[in-house]
Amino acid sequence: MTWFNKLNRLVQIILLLIPGVNWVVEVIVRWSTWLQRGGIIRLVVSILTIPFGIIFGWLDLIWVLLFKKLFLQ
C-alpha cells in the first residue's frame, strides 16, 4: 500500500486507467493493506477485489483524483 501512495499522482492515475494493470494493482494493494493492518472490512474488500477488481479500480481512479487516496484505504 505504501508503495502505491509514494508514487507520483500521474503514475497512480495511469496505473488505474489501464484495465488489466488496474486489476493487478488493486489485488496487490488491497491484499498488502490487509496483511499490514488486518481487519474484517479490509479482508472483505480484498476478497471482493478478486472478482470485481476492475470496478474497484475505476472507483479508485475517481477517488484518487478527488481525495488523493484509495477508496476504503
Structure notes:
- The model has no long low-confidence stretch (mean pLDDT 88).
- The N and C termini lie close together (9 Å).
- The chain is mainly alpha-helical and 73 residues long.
- Helix 2 crosses helix 4 and helix 3 packs across helix 4 (40-67).
- The protein is built from four helices and no strands.
Low-confidence stretches: none
**In DSSP terms, counting alpha (H) and pi (I) runs of 4 or more, how many helices?**
4
Helix coverage percent of residues? Answer: over 70%
What is the N-to-C order of secondary-structure elements (H for helix, E for strand)?
HHHH
- Average pLDDT works out at 88
Instruction: Give a count of the beta strands, DSSP E runs of length 2 or more.
Output: 0
List the helices and strands and how they pair.
Blueprint: H1 2-6, H2 9-17, H3 19-37, H4 40-67
List keywords for this structure.
mainly alpha; 4 helices; about 70 residues; single chain
Q: In summary, what is this structure?
A:
With 73 residues, this protein is mainly alpha-helical. The protein has helices at residues 2-6, 9-17, 19-37, 40-67.
